Amino acid sequence: MTIPMPAEVTGLTTIALHRPEEHVLLVTLDRPEARNAMNTQMGLDLMAVFERMQVTTDGARCIVMTGQGDKAFCAGGDLKERRGMSDEMWQTQHAIFERMVRSLVGCPIPVIAAVNGAAYGGGCEIAAACDFVYASTNARFALTEVTLGIMPGAGGTQNMARAMGARRAKEVLLTGSPFTAEEGERWGLVNRVCQPDDLVPAAVETAKRIATNAPISTRQIKQSINRGLDMSLWDGLAYEIEAYNRMVPTQDRSEGVNAFNEKRTPSFVGR
Predict the structure, then answer these.
(1) 189-224 pLDDT, tens digit each
(2) Model pTM?
(3) 91 and 184 part of one domain
(4) What's the confidence (pLDDT) of residue 10?
(5) Per the domain annotation, does 18 fall within a domain?
(6) Fewer C-beta neighbours within 10 Å, C or N terminus of the chain?
(7) Which residues, other chains included, contact 55 with Cβ-Cβ below 8 Å and sequence gap of 6+?
(8) One domain for residues 171 and 237
(9) Domain, as residue range, for 106
(10) Which residues is 63 bridged to in the sheet?
(11) One of 33, 51, 88, 145 is an active-site residue; which one?
């Protein structure tokens, strides 16, 4: 049975899905008229895609997320939509955003953020929730919630501190000041800074390299790092061995060893 792509299942309207490579899914935030700001529908669309990943990845082994256009990755929450919202409406919308971020963090396959412009507020939180970040030279990051009388509520206080350390994260979050891609790289949020035209191709190339590796291996590595960070070293080592043992009886483990000895490229199938 052929499993349909998420767009065919949910009728996505604020994001676009493409397959630049066989096992790579490109997710593009697609509201350029609003600098790809996150409205309620975008929260629902992203939630639909990433919650589906818990059931089936539709053949994807790595995801790249970027924004439409060259000005913004995501300008954060859509404040025009939020203007005039009652407290109840605001909290209901935010519950969607919370669930969306949890589904992104819990995605079983690696997710690379390709930040192509402004990543403010919730946009910065989405980038920080990905497994790692590539950014263009014109990217700018900021968590400006404190200047609006609120605070980050989509993982910002947690993921930023894990990426850049508590002291730097406190400075960024408490001031609301923007910072550049180069600063983000120095501080540990950004892995690589690229020229704008090279950004998505570089992220896709890295995703392609990840996707050529054994799918069970990449999933178990991601899980071991994420879970292990919240454990003591000894508990993390025990968790790592449990993850390792999951791969010993797999077809891909035998294929990898055989391919090495036969001096050929392995063909991994995820079993």
Answers:
(1) 999 999 999 999 999 999 999 999 999 999 999 999
(2) 0.91
(3) yes
(4) 54
(5) yes
(6) N
(7) none
(8) no
(9) 6-211
(10) 25, 111
(11) 145
